[in-house]
Amino acid sequence: MAKFELKLPKMGESVAEATITNWLKEVGDTIEEDEAVLEIATDKVDSEVPSEVNGVLVEKLFGPDDVVQVGQTIAIIEVDGDAADTTSTSEETNTTETSANITAVEETVNQAQATVSNEDYSDSDRFYSPLVKNIAKQEGISAEELEKVQGTGKDGRVTKDDILNYVQNREEQVAPAPVSTPVQSTPKPAATPVSVNGEDEIIEMSRMGKMISHHMMKSIETSAHVQSFIEVDVTKIWNWRNKVKNEFSKREGEKLTFTPIFMEAVAKAIKDFPLINISVDGDKIIKRKNINLGMAAALPDGNLIVPVIKNADQLNLVGLAKQVNDLASRARAGKLKPDDTQGGTYTVTNVGTFGSIMGTPIINQPQVAILALGAIRKVPAVIETPEGDFIGIRHKMFLSHSYDHRVVNGALGGQFVQRVAQYLEGFDDTRNF
């Protein structure tokens, strides 16, 4: 028998680590090739890690809530001689590289187990991962002290971040305070207690819900949000789409929605105003080379996710439609890859999907602006012609532009959304796809 190292696979250029959320297999379980062994999470995306071989799971090197780097070994699978050929010529000739790697892993695990055994953490009723135990041991944290660490993981488990934050705060409390002139500070208001009666239902926030909540509050604390609004006549677009959507579907095998048309206009406007496509790093402004448009998508469970159309300005309308449909369908099915939500430089959200005519969206950090698309409505409007003005029925919508007033002033924020409106109203309704 030989042993195969299951490693955390590469999940995209910008993804370097993932958090283990759940093991689907236990030690001793038989595993088939391509069968999911565990679940991981990166930012807002949940994924599964499949096995590359047939075999038996003999060792798990990390526990739930542990953070693992891409390329790290996360489990050992025992395989027969034939399956071992996927990583080596034969079991006998694999004594130089694979055996050395496995030995190194085993030594690491043995050392960790030996280290943990010196401190009697096993008497606790709480679950602690090997990583948390090792950090506690290295920092001289006793079992009694570890019991007091607040856990934010599943079922109150102590995560790596929890123990590291505890250690940092512990060191700051021990360190002598610098001598300085007392400064009157405004205390942070305490959270208002929430009363619960017997008829109320308490619902635990999902992991994604907690992350979205934190991300939104962080954005409010970081950026000075300002909004500009403009009404747009999209009658040309409405009529053109109705005219070509069946032919588009027949030729391209894709549904033509309004979203790719709006994304095309946004990408054009960003090229006209590149300083809307930036991020802030302290006192520095990072001007992004690529135009990567995030599109906020509602999920069946009520949460929100923002997959990204990379290099949107380089795609024609057909390419944008295919990207929009693919990302939206995979988002709803929970099939997005971690890299699908990374690298966005500007975000568009369609609040009109739920009937809202406008909104004040929160900026998706570290971006500096976000555009909300309101519902398209049939309204009476004044139409100007060389022969005079008259009242007609038009299809109109509101664009709501939120931007970071630290780096985007009212002129730039207003001119940008005005340019988007100009592209939409000037849409060429004689064009092909």
Task: Give a written overview of the molecule.
This protein folds into three domains: 2-116, OB fold (Dihydrolipoamide Acetyltransferase, E2P), CATH 2.40.50.100; 118-172, Dihydrolipoamide Transferase, CATH 4.10.320.10; 224-425, Chloramphenicol acetyltransferase-like domain (Chloramphenicol Acetyltransferase, 2-Layer Sandwich), CATH 3.30.559. The strands form five sheets. Strands 9, 12, 15, 16, 17, 18 and 19 form a seven-stranded mixed beta sheet that branches. It has a four-stranded antiparallel beta sheet with strand order 1-8-6-3. The model is unreliable at 83-117 and 177-181 (pLDDT under 50). By secondary structure, it is of the alpha+beta class. Helix 2 crosses helix 3, helix 8 packs across helix 9 (317-332) and helix 8 (259-272) packs across helix 10. Helix content is 30%, strand content 24%. It is built from ten helices and 19 strands.
Topology:
Elements: E1 2-7, E2 17-23, E3 30-31, E4 36-42, E5 45-50, E6 55-60, E7 67-69, E8 73-79, H1 81-84, H2 98-117, H3 130-138, H4 143-146, H5 160-174, H6 207-222, E9 225-233, H7 235-252, H8 259-272, E10 278-281, E11 284-287, E12 293-295, E13 297-298, E14 304-305, E15 308-309, H9 317-332, E16 346-350, E17 369-373, E18 377-385, E19 388-404, H10 410-425
Helix pairs in contact: 2-3, 8-9, 8-10
